Amino acid sequence: MTASYTYNRPSRVSDEARSKVLTAAVQLGYGGPDASARSLRRGSTRALGVVMGEHLSYAFEDPQAASFLAGIADVCADAGYCMTILPITGASDDAARIPSAAVDGFIVWTTSDDDPILQAIQAMKRPAVVHGGPAIPGLGLVGIDNRAAAHAVGAVAFAGAERPAVVSFPLSRARIGTIMHGADARDVLFPVTRERLEGYRQAAEEIDIAWHRVPIGVCAHNDAAEAERITATLLSLPEPPDAIAAMSDEQAAGVVRAAVAAGRAIPDDLAITGWDDAATASHLGLTTVAQSLREQGAACARVALGEAPNPPAAPWSVVRRGSTRH
């Protein structure tokens, strides 16, 4: 009992007794109670698993992913939990990683309708929440109304435009970069991408621009350099866009660089909008959608811990700056 108290309740052991126990432990090569055995005894790992459908480095390199993780970390720290990041990259063994994760609950970074990890998480019957979608029976859902936000910012981006365009997130887990016209929502498997495209479509049609005329530069990843390359291609078209709505501030930063390189004046020749209201949006003077991914990450953690099973839709707003005409 004295040894147990030394490791688990040291305030109940005298300094002399604790010193003797620790000295004996060193002599025996004993490193202390096994954390796995403890978790079996109490039926809890005191850890939340965060499932990221990206390369592990994305969690640290993408500003918004980092902000989202910081929100989860805030709640975990207060609750005495740790956080385990589970990168899911489209490999055949992705779903098999879920049952082996020693966690009490799952938080899923936005993914596609057909992602097999969703079924694997459902089968675990542990608290779980999806950020951004898709909506899955039995799993929580945290995020903003992406369609309404895209409609609102698209109306600002496309005001006065004759040839609007979109720089988009990937359409499916295949992550194929391409340029297409008027994407059919039925072919878009990422709910966040689908809902934003639907909002942009509505904004375009309200100014009598047929959706099939709108070029969409699909990026494989949320990457400024890729957005810059695809925007350069859009601007070289026979009828280049005079307004571009990007699905992130990272992408919008790439759009700005391509516009400057092509000699386009912002916003007179090319209006540009982003999404997230990250630091780069303020620096570049981007009109954008403001949302707090840190607060959304915290909301996801509270759902996974069973503290808030049905959170309301997260708030958002359009921040107008000098990259748009009106």
From TrEMBL:
Keywords: DNA-binding, Transcription, Transcription regulation. InterPro entries: HTH_LacI, LacI/GalR-like_sensor, Lambda_DNA-bd_dom_sf, Peripla_BP_I. CDD domains: PBP1_LacI-like. Transmembrane segments: none annotated. GO terms for molecular function: DNA binding. Residues 1-42 form the HTH lacI-type domain. It holds the Pfam family Peripla_BP_3. PANTHER family: LACI-RELATED TRANSCRIPTIONAL REPRESSOR, TRANSCRIPTIONAL REGULATORY PROTEIN. This is LacI family DNA-binding transcriptional regulator.
